[in-house]
């Protein structure tokens, strides 16, 4: 008999140990149920947190408080005066244009407005107003109390021009040509005086531009008129010299006289020929009257030949000069005189037209807002400036902090 087989033993199950859960949880309970989650404890204060808070205090809080305190305690009130104007160009047409309804009575000139816009910001205007109103004294009066917003009395003219750009704000609409100014000063009367000074200086500058335009319009016409007058004088003097030399006032009238003389001689010749024929028919040979008639006819023919010879190229005129050359010279001088007269009339008409055109077109400065006088100070905008200052400081601090942590995380 075979020996009995011993019973198989069950494998011993290895004891499993569960890993502790994150957050400090103990081992898993029997049955596979996880322990509840426990919140992390409070973060520990570290050095970088202290540095971050100190930087915020030094960069944002303290400068913001200093700036706000300066604005509300030391910044001097500023008054403003507003003035608005536009350059107008009058174009008054003639009576025909007015009846036709095609004239433009007024209009704006954008090019003049652009010039005026640059002139208001120029050193020339600032220098002129400084001489008239003493801008340095007006702007530097509160310098000891408010050195930030006031002008340094020791500054140069370039510094004054730069400060002028802060105190005078220009609003320019290029489409309509309107210019509006906001003039700031530490006194309401000073702001009003400066605004009036700007308007007066601008008006004078526009008047100068108008005068220059009128001079340019009439200058060329005047020069052309002067040249045409000199040309007419020379032509008339040349014709007078010719008449004095030839002792002929009008060669054409002299020619007509010569032609009349020739016609008379031709008539006498014809009458003499007829008389000769009659004598030959009624008298005998050897009659002395026939000889006289023939002699008369010969003299008349010789005189006609001499008179006709004056008009030939080889003929001799007064003072043994070629009569044809005299006639040619007289015609040339007459043409020169007529041309000079026509040129003079045209130049005179152009000059009169230029003068009329210059008088019709005039520029002037029209104020649609007279310089205003403030009753209370509205500048500086303390609340706005304080908010912008704090916002700028905060953005600067935030950007610096982000840059610092970005560089730190890359290490």
From TrEMBL:
Keyword match Mitochondrion: no
Which spans of this chain does the record mark as coiled coil? 222-310
Q: Which residue stretches belong to region Disordered? A: 1-41
Keywords in alphabetical order, please.
Coiled coil, Membrane, Transmembrane, Transmembrane helix
Which residues span the membrane? 50-72, 385-407
Q: Mind telling me which InterPro entries this protein's record contains?
A: Bact_polysacc_biosynth/exp
Domain of life, per lineage: Bacteria
State where composition is biased (Low complexity): 10-41
Official protein name in the record: Capsular polysaccharide transport system permease protein
Q: Which organism does this record belong to?
A: Rhodovulum iodosum
């Amino acid at each position: 008999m075979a020996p009995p087989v011993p019973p198989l033993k069950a494998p011993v199950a290895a004891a499993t140990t569960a890993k502790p859960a994150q957050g400090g949880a103990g081992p898993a309970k029997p049955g596979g149920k996880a322990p509840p989650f426990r919140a992390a404890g409070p973060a520990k204060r570290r050095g970088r947190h202290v540095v971050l808070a100190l930087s915020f205090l030094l960069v944002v809080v303290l400068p913001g408080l200093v700036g706000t305190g300066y604005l509300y305690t030391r910044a001097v009130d500023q008054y403003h005066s507003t003035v608005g104007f536009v350059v107008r160009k009058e174009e008054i047409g003639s009576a025909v244009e007015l009846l036709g309804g095609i004239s433009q009575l007024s209009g704006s000139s954008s090019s003049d407005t652009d010039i005026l816009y640059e002139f208001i910001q120029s050193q020339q205007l600032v220098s002129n107003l400084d001489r008239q109103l003493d801008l340095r004294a007006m702007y530097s009066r509160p310098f000891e109390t408010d050195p930030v917003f006031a002008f340094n009395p020791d500054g140069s003219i370039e510094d004054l021009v730069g400060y002028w750009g802060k105190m005078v704000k220009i609003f320019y609409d290029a489409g309509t040509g309107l210019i509006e100014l906001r003039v700031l000063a530490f006194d309401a009367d000073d702001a009003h005086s400066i605004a009036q000074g700007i308007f007066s200086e601008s008006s004078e500058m526009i008047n100068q531009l108008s005068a220059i335009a009128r001079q340019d319009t009439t200058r060329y016409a005047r020069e052309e008129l002067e040249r045409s007058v000199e040309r007419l004088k020379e032509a008339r003097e040349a014709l007078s010299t010719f008449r004095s030399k030839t002792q002929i006032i009008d060669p054409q009238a002299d020619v007509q006289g010569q032609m009349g003389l020739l016609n008379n001689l031709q008539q006498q010749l014809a009458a003499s020929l007829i008389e000769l024929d009659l004598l030959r028919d009624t008298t005998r040979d050897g009659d002395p009257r026939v000889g006289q008639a023939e002699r008369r006819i010969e003299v008349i023919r010789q005189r006609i030949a001499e008179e006709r010879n004056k008009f030939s190229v080889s003929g001799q005129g007064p003072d043994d000069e070629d009569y044809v050359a005299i006639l040619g010279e007289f015609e040339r001088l007459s043409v020169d005189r007529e041309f000079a007269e026509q040129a003079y009339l045209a130049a005179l008409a152009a000059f009169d037209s230029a003068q009329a055109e210059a008088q019709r077109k005039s520029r002037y400065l029209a104020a649609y807002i007279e310089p205003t006088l403030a009753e209370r100070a509205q500048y500086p905008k303390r609340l706005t400036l304080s908010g912008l200052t704090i916002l700028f400081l905060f953005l600067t601090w935030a950007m610096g902090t982000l840059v610092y942590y970005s560089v730190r995380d890359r290490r």
